[in-house]
């Protein structure tokens, strides 16, 4: 079978690939079983971007990485990728910063990726490129005479035309997506948004519900939701519930019910609304005072981007406000940690939590929702509260679905979850377990690669 070449902005170092939380490495586990070259940024910053990759050959997996130059880190990574495209694709025009020099840096870095990768490619490779950092990479590789099959997968939402209109280089960005043979999205809604943008900005013509003709090329758009390995996660959760950390957690709760939230510290995750909602829970349903503890693990992320610095400041303040208002000398209502925790530990916390809070304002999929469900004990399961704006909500409709812009509704949902009868919890959990197992990481990999190899 043809070799698979995976390209992503970051290549996870081996330690992360084996055990650290989530990310692409976990989702790609199935794909990494074959003959694979994985190419991307090492995570290191150098004076200049190098176009000579460092290559580590393993038995089946070869990893090739390059360092990013300081200027490229600034314009490509901090700038256009995370200050322009990320807010745009999360429908947050008020947070969008666009600078022409950032866009130029983005194009240049994609050219550098192509220049470093092209010499490593074989004519019959199948190339699978991931996420918003690398939209122009197919076009850049084609300029290096690479004519292989190329697929792209967008892990985050795709913006509708009314939002895309704000991007000064919308025509180029959308046209670049039409240089792929297959373009994959998390949801049908994202796929539809892309197709509408392709017609408006790239002059493409719809030739069917999932194909476009753009210039001389035909592009296939597919919706394939990302998932997790639910059985492996369930095992980790069960194993972790006997650990000494789980015991420490139980002791610290002294019989109180646990509510858990786990996110990167990112404005798309709706954390400020969530803290506000938690505060309203005690105003509106005072019977829960002293009876619950909410643990929010918010791993710091993209700390060089100004909007993330502002968010951290807001959350630090809000956490102080909630605890200042409701704490008792022997009760801290909100436990807030701004670092990541090992996957196994999180799995155990999910299992012991009565409520999983997943309230993004917009999210491509949200794997935490799936992990929370996979970790539950079917006899006495917890309840998932899920934003209608997470891609996961398209199929996980047996969660309590909320509008994250309405903190009162979130507070009511927490109350509903805390008081839900066992029978209803079991029925909802059963339906959600089925979905999480059907829409698995393995299925995502297999279906995506089938599309790519068939084109
Ligand atoms: P993310 O925005 O990172 O991913 P998400 O899917 O929720 O969002 O999380 C990815 C992984 O990171 C999960 O496995 C989770 O357990 C882990 N994680 C999150 N916070 C953590 C913390 N504080 N400590 C330790 N681990 C933590 C992007 C898109 C999503 C999409 C994924 C995959 O934004 O919408 O689901 O890619 O396609």
UniProtKB/TrEMBL annotation:
What InterPro entries does the entry give?
Glyco_trans_20
Q: Which SUPFAM superfamilies match?
A: UDP-Glycosyltransferase/glycogen phosphorylase
Q: Which CDD domains match?
A: GT20_TPS (cd03788)
Gene3D superfamilies recorded: Glycogen Phosphorylase B
Checking Pfam families in the record gives: Glyco_transf_20
- PANTHER family per the UniProt record, alphabetical: BCDNA.GH08860, TREHALOSE-6-PHOSPHATE SYNTHASE
As for family, the record states:
Belongs to the glycosyltransferase 20 family.
The name this protein carries in UniProt is Trehalose-6-phosphate synthase
The organism encoding this protein is Dongia soli
């Amino acid at each position: 079978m043809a070799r698979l070449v995976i390209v992503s902005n970051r290549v996870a170092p081996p330690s992360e690939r084996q055990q650290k939380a989530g990310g692409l490495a976990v989702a790609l586990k199935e794909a990494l079983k074959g003959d694979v070259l994985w190419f991307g940024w090492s995570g290191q910053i150098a004076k200049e971007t190098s176009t000579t990759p460092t290559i580590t050959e393993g038995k089946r997996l070869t990893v090739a990485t390059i360092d990013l130059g300081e200027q490229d880190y600034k314009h490509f990574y901090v700038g256009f990728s995370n200050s322009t495209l990320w807010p745009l694709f999360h429908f947050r025009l008020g947070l969008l910063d666009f600078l022409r020099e950032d866009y130029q840096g983005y194009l240049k870095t994609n050219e550098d990726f192509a220049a470093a990768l092209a010499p490593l490619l074989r004519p019959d490779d199948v190339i699978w490129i991931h996420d918003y950092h690398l939209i122009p990479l197919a076009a850049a590789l084609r300029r290096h005479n690479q004519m292989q099959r190329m697929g792209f997968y967008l892990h985050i939402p795709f913006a509708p035309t009314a939002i895309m209109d704000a991007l000064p280089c919308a025509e180029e960005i959308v046209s670049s997506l039409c240089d792929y043979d297959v373009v994959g999205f998390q949801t049908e809604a994202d796929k539809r948004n892309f197709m509408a943008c392709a017609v408006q900005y790239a002059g493409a013509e719809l030739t069917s519900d999932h194909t476009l003709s753009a210039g001389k090329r035909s592009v296939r758009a597919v919706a394939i939701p990302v998932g997790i390995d639910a059985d492996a996660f369930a095992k980790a959760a069960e194993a972790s519930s006997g650990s000494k950390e789980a015991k420490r957690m139980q002791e610290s709760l002294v019989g109180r019910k646990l509510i858990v939230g786990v996110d990167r510290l990112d404005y798309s995750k709706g954390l400020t609304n969530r803290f506000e909602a938690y505060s309203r829970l005690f105003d509106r349903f005072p019977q829960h005072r002293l009876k619950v503890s909410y643990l929010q693990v918010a791993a710091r992320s993209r700390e060089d981007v100004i909007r993330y610095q502002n968010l951290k400041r807001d959350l630090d303040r809000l956490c102080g406000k909630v605890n200042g208002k409701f704490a008792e000398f022997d009760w801290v209502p909100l436990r807030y940690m701004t670092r990541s925790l090992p996957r196994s530990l999180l799995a155990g916390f999910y299992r012991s939590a009565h409520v999983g809070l997943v309230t993004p304002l917009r999210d491509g999929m949200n794997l935490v929702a799936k992990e929370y469900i996979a970790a539950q004990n079917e006899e006495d399961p917890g309840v998932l509260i899920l934003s209608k704006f997470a891609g996961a909500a398209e199929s996980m409709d047996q969660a309590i679905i909320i509008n994250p812009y309405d903190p009162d509704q979130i507070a009511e949902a927490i109350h509903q979850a805390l008081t839900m009868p066992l029978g209803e919890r079991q029925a909802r959990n059963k339906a959600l377990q089925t979905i999480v197992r059907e829409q698995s990481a393995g299925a995502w990999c297999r279906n995506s690669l089938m599309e790519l190899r068939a084109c």
